[in-house]
Design a protein that fits this description.
Length: 365
């Protein structure tokens, strides 16, 4: 069901960004350097002047050779911003930013996200040392559990090979966030199944996430979780499965009742996959929790012919029609008019489905 609270208000535009280019290959994303939220870098420069900076470089020219070592050096319960500047290279490691280390800014030093890659290959079914498996959330290459985290100009990759027949649970997360006030600006999140997990610390808490000018790649439920997340001016790149087949789902929200889910706005959804092979999303009632009310809205976005004409579908016995799924003024070969299988917001309803509504008083810039 869609709430209707008509009000007149000019839609707030997202930040201005430059063009973005995506190179071929799962872990090769490149884009020109852009200012921090379009301000020419002034806000970031002012912040950096007052913040500690830790430098990571594989060749030993920085203070640390791994990203995790730099995170470990940040004081617990730090009260001011700490910038971790990462020099070009591929860093094959897992990284965890614990909840007691807020205010971290993880930044690729060149301003080109293709120059810095943090990558690992754990999957949900990968055996853990000492027994058991990682599980979906534990498979993340990078896990962020601290509030006020920002990342820009680098890419997060999970390059688990789905053709591995010894592992049946193939969910493999590139980046997991489970905190509030998360900014992901000019980043890449690259994987196949369950690429980007946008969560909150608990079902009762709100985890606001702002994704801007970024590339998210995958094929099955590859933007998922219970966060209140905006994906703005970004490229949602659809890729084929490991066996060459097309088919999948972009979003799998697990939103708690009364909270906001996923808002995709002013973005592009497409890729080198078959026509009418991808759903925009389906409702994930995590753990079979019937009290959840998953939400995904796709608006003012270009949809390629890869998107099905009935873009939402059921999941694990839960009907998408019982939850909150809608579109508004999308364009492209994959867009369509309103029907019982394709809900569209009215202009009055769309006034309450803007970036500012999702961020609820928080201004990332």
């Amino acid at each position: 069901m869609l709430p209707s609270r008509p009000r007149s208000r000019r839609r707030r535009p997202g930040p201005l960004i430059g063009p973005l280019a995506l190179a071929t290959g799962a872990a090769l994303i490149a884009a020109p350097a852009t200012g921090w939220f379009g301000d020419g870098g002034r806000a970031h420069a002012a912040e950096s002047a007052a913040a500690a900076t830790l430098v990571v470089a594989k060749d030993g020219s920085g203070q640390y050779t791994t990203v995790q070592a730099a995170v470990n050096a940040v004081p617990a319960n730090n009260s001011s911003a700490v910038t971790i500047s990462v020099k070009p290279g591929t860093y094959r490691e897992t990284v965890k930013i614990p909840s007691n280390k807020p205010h971290i800014r993880l930044v690729g030093s060149t301003g080109n996200k293709g120059d810095v890659t943090i990558v690992y290959n754990n999957a949900s079914g990968t055996p853990k040392p000492g027994g058991g498996t990682y599980g979906t959330s534990g498979s993340a290459t990078v896990a962020v559990e601290a509030d006020d985290f920002q990342a820009r100009h680098l890419q997060f990759v999970n390059d688990f090979n789905e053709a591995n027949t010894s592992i049946t649970d193939k969910q493999a997360v590139a980046l997991r966030t489970a905190a509030d006030k998360i900014v992901l600006d000019d980043i890449g999140a690259v994987g196949d199944q369950d690429t980007l997990l946008l969560d909150s610390a608990s079902k009762a808490t709100t985890g606001r996430v702002y994704v801007n000018n970024s590339v998210i790649q995958g094929n099955v439920d590859f933007v998922f979780g219970r966060a209140s997340a905006v994906v703005n001016k970004s490229t949602i790149r659809l890729v084929k499965r490991y066996d060459g087949s097309s088919g999948g789902y972009v979003a799998a929200p697990s939103t708690a009742a009364g909270k906001k889910g996923f808002l995709f706005i002013d973005s592009t959804i497409g890729g080198d996959v078959g026509n009418r092979s991808f759903y925009l999303g389906r409702p994930w009632h995590a753990g079979g929790d019937a009290s959840l009310d998953p939400q995904a809205v796709v608006r003012n976005t270009s949809l390629s012919a890869a998107v099905k004409t009935t873009p939402w579908t059921d999941m694990s016995g839960f009907s998408w029609k019982d939850d909150r799924f809608a579109e508004y003024k999308n364009t492209g070969a994959g867009s369509g008019s309103a029907s019982g299988d394709r809900p569209q917001l009215t202009d009055a309803q769309a006034a309450d489905y803007e970036i500012a509504d999702w961020l609820a008083g928080w201004q990332p810039s």
